[in-house]
Amino acid sequence: MLHNLVDALKASAAAYPEHRAIVFAGRTTSHGEFYTLTDRAAAGLARAGIRPGDRIGLYAVNSDTFAAAYFGILKAGATVVPINLLLNPKEVAYILNDAGVSGLIYSDPFGDAVREIRALLPVETTIWRIGSSPIDPADGDWNDLIAADEPPPALTLDPDNDLAAIIYTSGTTGYPKGAMLTHRNLASNANSISVALRLEPGHDVLLVVLPMFHAFAATVGMIFPLLNGCTLIPVPKFDPQLIADTVQSEGVTILPAVPSMYNVLLRLPESEVAKFASLKFCISGGAALPAEVMRQFEQKFGKFIYEGDGPTECSPCTCVNPIGGERKIGSVGRVIPDVEMKIMDDEGRELPDGEIGEICVRGPNVMKGYWKRPDDTRDSFWGEWFKTGDLGYVDQDAYFYIVDRKKDMIIVNGMNVYPRVIEEVLFKHPAIKEAAVVGQPDALHGERAVAHVVVKEGATLTEAGLRQYCREHLGRHEIPRTVRFMDALPRNAAGKVLKRELRVAGEQERGVDHRD
């Protein structure tokens, strides 16, 4: 196995030069053509003064150009800093300044934001625009960058120390932290995923509608297929009808998605179900998959969803239910090859099977640390073991279960209450489309559970009715003391519910002054 992404891409292009690498907007790019394109991008960046070790921001929608820019940056010896497309310009500028970028590559839709961002960056930052809109005189043009047919700079990469990407985590309080992922981290994880998912080099076709700046989409949906002669189908926006049409037209075999997407796909009419015939299976990650959503999806489409998990800091995949093997509903599966996981207590001691503690990970996929944050890095490890922040347990068959995020656990009258347990019950209610539970301080009980509920169109539900339903399915300490009905739950670009926003909204209702 090659341990740096540049050499691995070269090997894939040599083995599968004529195979489809990317299909986007009517354009088909072969693996050989993609390799040449990334050579040109790397040469253009070097010509513009980018040197090994520099950081380059990538602020772009899912596309063939996103992938070309990503690998072009790597071939120039630089580090990719992917930008969350939902951030406001000031948040983007914070990340770019924190990473100390030398350049920024952005796509057309973000022109207005970049004009604001530019004023917050050092004047020497070089900016290139991807697209066809009239270019800002201060920007370079992506097409000019890749115009010259020149060789890329000669590189000698250290897979254990040279950073491929710095991916900023969303953060629950304060500013986001940049997880430093080396070439070995990402290359090893892509290889482990290939083995665990039984993916077929030169054959599989992956549709990627998850944003490619996100670790899950980047590794599973982009890096894996490009390093293994497979095909990447980037989709810039989640639209259920477009997904159905694209799966059928491109012969998609693997669909990686998050639970909220599977929930929305359930709304497709029965006439669209046949369009998913080419799928071998689906993968779910990024958030807990409600058992009821899994059951309904598999019943309707006849395709298994295999749930897995892993944090950004682990490149990101750590475990998945065995493909073609025993799936345990509610479990995130078993560890993937070359990765170790165990359950630890607050003192760093391993716990026996069945006991709840923090899930910790060790392996070549685990990040080098947090960018410029040695204290946060130190606090996130027990020796070589990364502390994920997830509470869970492992059963006698080595299947892992996530009970909840450590920070999301609610303590009611001294008893642990796990929001995910309540959410699973709420999802089974016939009138509920979405639900999220958070804790809020309570003078009498310490904390109380607050349920945020989105009701299905045409359905009716009262707080009294929901509380009675919960009494029938939950312990007294688990019953939500407050129910808030909402039109939609706040989510990030990867579909994960932003529970911090729900907590802040609750505090504001109670008149709490909330500052980071």
Percentage of residues in helical conformation: 25-40%
Radius of gyration: 23 Å
Number of strands: 27
Strand order of the largest sheet: 4-3-5-6-7
- Low-confidence stretches are 512-516
Structural class: alpha/beta
The number of helical elements comes to: 15
The largest β sheet comes out as: 5 strands, parallel
Mean pLDDT: 93
**Form type:** globular
Distance between the termini: 44 Å
Strand content: 15-25%
Layout: helices, strands, pairs:
Elements: H1 5-15, E1 20-24, E2 27-30, H2 31-47, E3 55-59, H3 64-75, E4 79-82, H4 89-99, E5 103-107, H5 111-118, E6 126-130, E7 140-141, H6 142-145, E8 163-168, E9 178-182, H7 183-196, E10 205-208, H8 215-227, E11 231-234, H9 240-250, E12 254-257, H10 259-265, E13 281-284, H11 291-301, E14 305-309, E15 319-320, E16 334-335, E17 340-344, E18 357-362, E19 369-370, H12 374-379, E20 381-382, E21 385-394, E22 400-405, E23 410-412, E24 415-417, H13 419-427, E25 432-442, E26 446-455, H14 463-473, E27 482-485, H15 499-509
Parallel strand pairs: 3-4, 3-5, 5-6, 6-7, 10-11, 12-13, 13-14, 26-27
Antiparallel strand pairs: 1-2, 8-9, 9-19, 14-15, 15-16, 17-18, 18-21, 20-21, 21-22, 23-24, 25-26
Helix pairs in contact: 1-2, 2-3, 4-5, 7-8
